[in-house]
Amino acid sequence: MEGFAPLEFEERPVVEMKARAGSFYELMRRRRTVRDFSDREIPVDVIEHALLTAGSAPSGAHRQPWHFVVVTDAEKKAAIREAAEHEERQFYGRRAPKEWLEALAPLGTDANKPFLTTAPVLIAVFLRRFSFVQGGGGRKRLKNYYTSESVGIATGLLISALHNAGVATLTHTPSPMRFLNRLLDRPRDERPYVLVVAGYPAPQAQVPVLQRYGLEELATFV
After folding, report:
1. Three-state DSSP class for 129?
2. CB atoms within 10 A of CB 113
3. Helix count (H) and strand count (E) of the chain?
4. Which residues pair with 135 in a beta bridge?
């Protein structure tokens, strides 16, 4: 980061502001988590632009504490599925408290994750606890700040950008996820944050009937 530059900001007429806010809401309210994917390929430049959008997120001290690994290789996806389903069997069979399983039951989820091999793209999001810069004395390690908040915002932008482009997504968080470091050759000081599954929905895809909070429930104006 070097110095400052004029802000590029486009102010819009109030009528246009309202129209754009409303149309974006209408777009995003149709976003749903998909578990049944087609294996049709997604254009790579769609994924690239979505990643660049994610990288535009604000971050603590502008340390940009994220790294995205895009997985399209069938063998890699199969290895990820095998490792994820192993952890999920432990979760559903032993680790998950009864209350959690009861909360998941209406969604119809279980330890089987076929979408990990069917969907054309997996995006593993890693949280970087440290950044590295080259200095006069060699490579210097810098602590990153507000990492969870920053990576969470970037992931939200990624999902929004993909939905805006017409790509369905699912966020998958098997626990623990350290197998992703091994399978994707990422350093130990990066923590797997979430696995974003991306692709076209299968023709027969269905989603649970859900009710989202209305404005009066999700926000307070004071």
Report:
1. coil
2. 22
3. 8, 6
4. 138
d(CA 144, CA 80): 28
Measured distance CA(156)–CA(57) in Å, rounded: 9
Side-chain-facing half-sphere of 41: CA atoms under 13 Å = 6
The answer to whether 198 and 184 have CB atoms below 8 angstroms apart is: no
Could you tell me if 180 and 195 are in contact, meaning their C-beta atoms sit under 8 angstroms apart? yes
Give the residues of the chain that fall short of pLDDT 50: none
Indicate the Cα dihedral angle 71, 72, 76, 78, nearest 10°: 120
Based on its alpha-carbon atoms, the radius of gyration of the chain, rounded to whole angstroms, reads 20
Among the listed residues 154, 158, 163, the one whose alpha carbon sits nearest the alpha carbon of residue 29: 163
Show Cβ contacts of residue 211 under 8 Å, excluding neighbours closer than 6 positions.
none
Instruction: Compute the distance between CA of residue 73 and CA of residue 120 in angstroms, rounded to an integer.
Output: 9
| Spatial separation of the C-alpha atoms in residues 193 and 126, rounded to whole Å | 5
Q: Is residue 168 a contact partner of residue 105, using CB atoms and an 8 Å limit?
A: no
pTM confidence score: 0.95
CB 61: neighbour CB atoms within 10 A?
14
